Amino acid sequence: QVQLAESGGGLVQAGGSLKLSCAASGRTSSTYAMGWFRQASGKEREFVAAIPWSSGSTYYADSVKGRFTISRDNAKNTVYLQMNSLKADDTAVYYCAAKKAYCSNYECYKVYYDYWGQGAQVTVSS
Q1: Which residues, in sequence order, are bridge partners of residue 79?
Q2: Long-range contacts made by residues 106-111, C-beta under 8 angstroms, separation at least 24?
Q3: SS3 letters for the chain?
Q4: What is the rounded distance in angstroms from the CA atom of residue 74 to the CA atom of residue 48?
Q5: At a CB cut-off of 8 Å and minimum separation 6, what does 90 contact?
Q6: What is the pLDDT along the chain (126 residues), one digit of tens a residue?
Q7: Whole-angstrom Cα distance, residue 51 to residue 35?
Q8: Nearest by Cα to 17 from 79, 87, 118
């Protein structure tokens, strides 16, 4: 099993920045990649970004590309999401997730995650 714990959420003004962290524990060696998802009130959960543990590749939803940056620290088993130029539409609960299966393309990184954190609220005031 893998446990995920998000931190760093909060309230920020539009145009501001926030950095989320996700600390993974347990059998992290069984996971291939980490992802961030978000769910706004009344909407479905959506993919935000993903990063494999062993590759420099990163993957982003079009809505956050150029504003958000996903990164990782393998020594700390931690993944980060740096969010800049935040907009009111970015308001959501942000979830960290871990995937066991190998992915070879962008679409694969958007689905089928095995472990999930409990979420961190991000609120952007306009």
Answers
A1: 22, 72
A2: 106/59, 109/33, 109/35, 109/47, 109/50, 109/59, 110/35, 110/47, 110/50, 110/59, 111/47
A3: CEEEEEECCEEEECCCCEEEEEEEEECHHHCCEEEEEEECCCCCCEEEEEEECCCCCCEECCCCCCCEEEEEEHHHCEEEEEECCCCHHHCEEEEEEEECCCCCCCHHHHCCCCEECCCEEEEEEC
A4: 20
A5: 38, 64, 83, 122, 124
A6: 999 999 999 999 999 999 999 999 999 999 999 999 999 999 999 999 999 999 889 999 999 999 999 999 999 999 999 999 999 999 999 999 999 999 989 999 999 999 999 999 999 998
A7: 6
A8: 87
